[in-house]
Every structure is written in C-alpha cells, then in structure tokens.
Design brief:
The chain has 337 residues and is α/β, with parallel strands linked by helices. The protein is built from eleven helices and ten strands. It has an eight-stranded parallel beta sheet, sandwiched between helices. It has a two-stranded antiparallel ribbon with strand order 3-4. A hairpin with a 2-residue loop joins strand 3 and strand 4. Helix 2 packs parallel to helix 4, helix 5 packs across helix 7 and helix 7 runs parallel beside helix 9. The longest helix is centred in the middle third of the chain and has 24 residues. It is globular, with a radius of gyration of 19 Å. The two termini are 17 Å apart.
Length: 337
C-alpha cells in the first residue's frame, strides 16, 4: 500500500521507518516575496516543478522584524536582505518599547498567514512548513544587528552594541524577549489554524560562541525558544542552527523533531554526529549556482549512505542561491526516487 507525502514526512520526523528517503530544497524568491499571492504562486510553482517531498516556505528574511516595527526598502537588496531604513531600538532605553504584537492586526504576520493559506490550497497533499526566527534573532534585527558573526545588517550604519545592551538593560531585554516570544507563540497557533504541517525554527547564527557563550545563550535564548516551540501542538518542528560553529547537539533536548545544520561549515560536525532527533542536512548549499551537478549527486549519495536505516531528511544545508540552476535542483531531486 502506498503512503502519502504527509504520512512519509511524519513517519521520518517521528523517528519511524518509512518506505523511502525524502528530499527537498529551497531558496528565496526575491522578486516575488513582497505580497502573499506572489510568494504563494512562486512557492507552489517551485514545489510542482521539482515534485519536492515537502516544502519549506521562504518568506522575506525581515518579515518578523517588520512585525515589531522595523522598516526596510524592498527595492534595494543585498543578498537576501532588503536595506534597513529604520530599526526601532536606537538606544538602550528603547528596549522597553518592545511590546507583544497582536497577530490578528499585524500586517506582516497576516500577509504570511494569507500566503500559507494560498499554498495550502495549491499543495493540499504536500507537507508545508513555515520559516520563523527565534526571539533572540528577532531582537538582534530590531537593534540593527545581524545575527551572523562578522556580518552587518544591510543599511544599518550604527547598530546598537548588543553585548552592552545585555549588561546595561538585562531586565529590559528579558521583557522584550518575552513579548516577542508570546507573539511568536500565538503566530504558531495561527499557522496551525491555517494548515501548516510544521515550522522551520531558525536560531540564526546565535549559537556561535563569538556571539553568545553557552550561559548567555541559555539565559537569553533557551527559555524563549521553549515558549515558541511548545506552542505547536500537532505539527512538526525542525530547528535550524545556522552558519559556522552551530553546535547542533546543544539542541537535542529541545522540543523539536528535527535538527538542521550546515555539515560543511567551519567548526560543525558531519552527519555522523549522534543525535536523538531526525537529522536534516546533507548537501553543501553553496554549490547550486554553477556546474556542480556531479558534486551534488556525490554528496547526496554519500549522505544517504551515512544515514541508511536512520531517520533523515535530505536537503541542502541552508537556502541555496537565488541563481541555483535547474540542473542542480533536478540533480538533488533525482537523488531520491
């Protein structure tokens, strides 16, 4: 008896055996991400073109920061980030202005919920999960900071010194993170109500020890991550710890079903890392915009060999380039038949 894409997706993330491995890939649609219908149509077309086993929705990288008041110029991008025109936290005292946002009246959140509804209607049998960031990542955006080591937020000329903020306004930071977490928890509930099968929860770069040591991370990220992740009652949760030195094992006790990380980045373990959670990785995401089809095939085959008999989602280690070639994406797709 054949099983559906949704059943296969759930089985693997539950740590159960399934009839075969599954694969997906994703990238941003920079010219289609400014409206719900454009993003939905691009996502649906992408899903059908490659017949992915499941879909990670890729909204604007800034949509959650927008929900709390940051502003961006969508006519001017660097990489996947529109240029920041205003951050809401300009000085340390501004941290106290971060308040819980009503999901029902938030234009950025309602836009994404509308996109999810369109995608759900267009892909009724395909598992879809929505991308969201941790409260700590969002707060870094609100101060004009990037959450990646040695990177700046495009358009942010004077980002707030985040480490000094933690020291000078510790209580205010906790108040802000709590407000963001409560908003994100209600957003998760709204996502489930419109039909998502899960969330892709990104602690984007914040696990890097140059940004936060383990004690600081445990104080300012972990409790708020748990508020958001525990809000999902039925769907699956894939945690993505992005970039170098991402420490995926740190999250093995989180309430998630899968853990995604870049197995090729500096300081990161490979797929041999022992984890209780389902591993979500496998192919270097930086090799999809050139003539690297043979290397993609080789890496996919190797990942499937390493993970043979184990719960595993084969994917690029992060979003592939917006210039990813059809050949490269087809090679990834055809690695699992």
């Amino acid at each position: 008896m054949s099983i559906s894409k949704k059943q296969r997706f759930e089985q693997i993330l539950n740590g159960e055996k399934s009839d075969r491995s599954i694969v997906s890939g994703w990238h941003h649609f920079l010219d289609k991400e400014q409206s719900a219908i454009d993003l939905a149509e691009a996502t649906i077309d992408f899903a059908k073109k490659y017949d992915w086993d499941w879909i990670k929705i890729n909204p604007r990288a800034t949509y959650l920061a927008e929900a709390f008041g940051n502003q961006y110029d969508f006519n001017d991008y660097r990489w996947v980030f529109p240029r920041q025109s205003q951050s809401i936290i300009q000085n340390f005292a501004d941290i106290w202005n971060v308040k819980e946002v009503e999901v029902a009246t938030s234009a950025p959140l309602q836009e994404q919920l509308e996109a999810v509804q369109y995608i759900r209607e267009g892909l009724p049998e395909t598992p879809i999960i929505q991308t969201m960031f941790s409260p700590l990542t969002i707060l870094m955006f609100l101060t004009g900071n990037s959450s990646y080591v040695n990177q700046t937020m495009y358009g942010s000329e004077k980002p707030l010194d985040f480490k000094k903020l933690l020291l000078s306004e510790r209580a205010g930071v906790h108040q802000a993170l709590h407000a963001i977490a409560l908003t994100m928890a209600k957003y998760v509930e709204a996502l489930e109500a419109v039909g998502v099968d899960g969330v892709f929860y990104a602690v984007t770069g914040t696990a890097h020890p140059q940004l936060f040591d383990e004690a600081t991370f445990n104080e300012f990220s972990r409790p708020y991550d748990l508020i958001v992740l525990n809000a999902m009652k039925k769907g699956k949760r894939i945690l993505h710890t992005c970039g170098a030195h991402a420490q995926p094992a740190r999250f093995d006790d989180y309430p998630v079903e899968g853990i995604s990380w870049d197995t090729e980045a500096k300081g990161n373990p490979g797929l041999e890392l022992p984890l209780e959670k389902t591993k979500v990785a496998g192919v270097d995401h930086e090799i999809f915009d050139g003539m690297n089809d043979a290397l993609i095939e080789q890496q996919a085959k190797r990942a499937l060999e390493i993970m043979d008999g184990q719960s595993f989602l084969l994917v690029p280690n992060c979003a592939v380039s917006v210039k990813a070639t059809e050949g490269a994406l087809n090679t990834l797709r055809n690695s699992v038949l």
